[in-house]
Amino acid sequence: MDYGIIFKGIGGFYYVKFNDSIYECKARGKFKNQKITPLVGDYVRISIQDEDKKLGMIEEILERKTELLRPTVANVNQAIIVFSIKNPLPNIILLDKMLVLAEQSGLDIVICFNKADLDVDFDYEKYEAIYHRIGYPVLKTCALEGEGIDALSVYLQDKITVFSGPSGVGKSSLLNAVHEGFTLQTGEISEKIKRGKHTTRHSELMELKNGGIVVDTPGFTSLSMHEVAPEDLKEYFIEFRMQGESCRFDNCMHLNEPGCAVKEAVERHDISKDRYEAYLYILNEINELKRRQKKW
Ligand SMILES: Nc1nc2c(ncn2[C@@H]2O[C@H](COP(=O)(O)OP(=O)(O)OP(=O)(O)O)[C@@H](O)[C@H]2O)c(=O)[nH]1
Ligand SMILES: [Zn+2]
């Protein structure tokens, strides 16, 4: 490959993986002039300044396919959204919010229900069916006993993946099961580092044995819907998109408009009532946020 990937950045130095080596690189001054900051995840062309010392210079940054804000990483193309079937029980509205944010970022999505070894006391089959039907892969995994780990591993190949999900669902444990010795930085640890050194911790990429790359900090942890415009929300409910084309009004919000194909699909059970209600709930929350912003 002619290009390397920035795995890590510290104080103006970028650690670029190129031809199986890590080069410590600086970026050409022209990027600063153009107000471009190289990001972890950027595909870059480097010139090698010193092969023995593995020093290089970033000459070119390829156009970013995606750009996440929290964590700030370029070119992530997949989110694994993890919940556990118990301890803690899944919060489905949180799952729907994470799906919205991952869709907004243009990522491929895999939903993972972990802790399959525990007794289920929520309706797993129901939710498995809801999300599977609209096209999301749904995995049931057990990080401790290995169920579903091979399937998860396959999804991680050849991708740059961010793990998302609430605390304690087993994100680190899953990664460790895929690749022994790997753990995600938890929210708690990064807080500690922040307090200790008074610096912001930047995310890094980690390469797995199977060639996949993962971001070392979980994504979509602050689930504020601030950056989602009310009129865009419907686009991020993927099963509404196609139906929505048949609504009488082009700008139908699928609320009380006459001739709304989405509402008709809900009546026919072609769109899940749970998902439609999640849409209403999140839309209301976004509108509330907007109202409060205006007030202040
Ligand atoms: N029974 C069971 N427990 C699990 C499983 N996977 C993880 N755990 C346990 O759940 C707890 C939390 O696991 P972590 O991997 O730290 O969870 P996390 O999502 O990385 O949590 P944060 O770092 O807080 O974001 C630990 O005590 C794990 O041993 C599983 O498949 N089954
Ligand atoms: Zn409609």
From TrEMBL:
EC number: 3.6.1.-
Domain CP-type G: 65-223
Residues that hold GTP according to the record: N114, K115, A116, D117, G165, P166, S167, G168, V169, G170, K171, S172, S173
Record CDD domains: S1_YloQ_GTPase, YjeQ_EngC
Entry keyword Metal-binding: yes
Record-listed Zn(2+) binding positions: C247, C252, H254, C260
UniProt domain EngC GTPase: residue ranges: 74-221
Organism superkingdom: Bacteria
Name of one Pfam family that matches: RsgA_N
Location, primary (coarse class): cytoplasm
Keyword terms of this UniProt record: Cytoplasm, GTP-binding, Hydrolase, Metal-binding, Nucleotide-binding, Ribosome biogenesis, RNA-binding, rRNA-binding, Zinc
PROSITE patterns on file: ENGC_GTPASE, G_CP
Record's keyword annotation contains Metal-binding: yes
Cofactor: Zn(2+)
Compartments (UniProt record): Cytoplasm
Co-factor: note: Binds 1 zinc ion per subunit.
The protein's role, per its UniProt record: One of several proteins that assist in the late maturation steps of the functional core of the 30S ribosomal subunit. Helps release RbfA from mature subunits. May play a role in the assembly of ribosomal proteins into the subunit. Circularly permuted GTPase that catalyzes slow GTP hydrolysis, GTPase activity is stimulated by the 30S ribosomal subunit.
PANTHER family assigned to the protein according to its UniProt record, in alphabetical order: SMALL RIBOSOMAL SUBUNIT BIOGENESIS GTPASE RSGA, SMALL RIBOSOMAL SUBUNIT BIOGENESIS GTPASE RSGA 1, MITOCHONDRIAL-RELATED
Family according to the record: Belongs to the TRAFAC class YlqF/YawG GTPase family. RsgA subfamily.
Quaternary state and interactors: Monomer. Associates with 30S ribosomal subunit, binds 16S rRNA.
Protein name per Swiss-Prot or TrEMBL: Small ribosomal subunit biogenesis GTPase RsgA
Organism: Fusibacter ferrireducens
